[in-house]
Amino acid sequence: MPIKAFLFDLDGVIVDTAIYHYQAWKRLANELGFDISEEFNEQLKGVSRTDSLDLILAHGNLTLPDEEKAQLATQKNEWYLELVSRMSSDDILPGVAQFFSQVRKANLQTALGSVSKNAPLILERIGMIDVFDAIIDGNKISKGKPDPEVFTKGAAELGVQPDECVVFEDAVAGVEAGKRGGMFVVGLGSPDVLAQADLVAPSLQDLTVDEVLAKSGR
């Protein structure tokens, strides 16, 4: 089947808000009496807010009731929003604008597939809210990555089949989600970390649409 759509994760692909997530989670952990490192934070990439909190609490050997966990997740999000509210088009990663220009020229549909409930806000801040034909975020899914729901819903909203899609991801959980969804997956980052991806490049700046279509073999 020919490729008809490109599906993109947000964090680490279009923008890099990982540092803001890390700063907010670190602040939360510190207030709970322990710390998290940047190395530990790598485990949280592509993971939902609730699941990230569970990993952090386990790291700190804490068990809390659901009501308190919900309050903590809300507090973390408020700190995170304070940081991302300052974002602008200057925060778009290098090569993204050029790559999307090629996507449009190739008449490919686009969807965002992010577990972040703040994805629309970020897209508005960076001026890319109208770039996507479909936006699937944490408000539209019930299962986080590595479950493929965020991408299969994106394909469904675009009216295409999974094997007609290419997913662009920077996280292990996201790569697994794309593969489980039956899609060709481009990993953006380290080949050692994203070994499950069908094609790996450092970033969108290092790819062309023609190259991706050729490598997908579809």
From TrEMBL:
<keyword id="KW-0119">Carbohydrate metabolism</keyword>
<dbReference type="InterPro" id="IPR010976">
    <property type="entry name" value="B-phosphoglucomutase_hydrolase"/>
</dbReference>
<keyword id="KW-0460">Magnesium</keyword>
<keyword id="KW-0479">Metal-binding</keyword>
<dbReference type="InterPro" id="IPR023198">
    <property type="entry name" value="PGP-like_dom2"/>
</dbReference>
<dbReference type="InterPro" id="IPR006439">
    <property type="entry name" value="HAD-SF_hydro_IA"/>
</dbReference>
<comment type="similarity">
    <text>Belongs to the HAD-like hydrolase superfamily. CbbY/CbbZ/Gph/YieH family.</text>
</comment>
<dbReference type="InterPro" id="IPR036412">
    <property type="entry name" value="HAD-like_sf"/>
</dbReference>
<keyword id="KW-0413">Isomerase</keyword>
<dbReference type="InterPro" id="IPR051600">
    <property type="entry name" value="Beta-PGM-like"/>
</dbReference>
<protein>
    <recommendedName>
        <fullName>Beta-phosphoglucomutase</fullName>
        <ecNumber>5.4.2.6</ecNumber>
    </recommendedName>
</protein>
<dbReference type="Pfam" id="PF00702">
    <property type="entry name" value="Hydrolase"/>
</dbReference>
<keyword id="KW-0597">Phosphoprotein</keyword>
<dbReference type="InterPro" id="IPR023214">
    <property type="entry name" value="HAD_sf"/>
</dbReference>
<dbReference type="InterPro" id="IPR010972">
    <property type="entry name" value="Beta-PGM"/>
</dbReference>
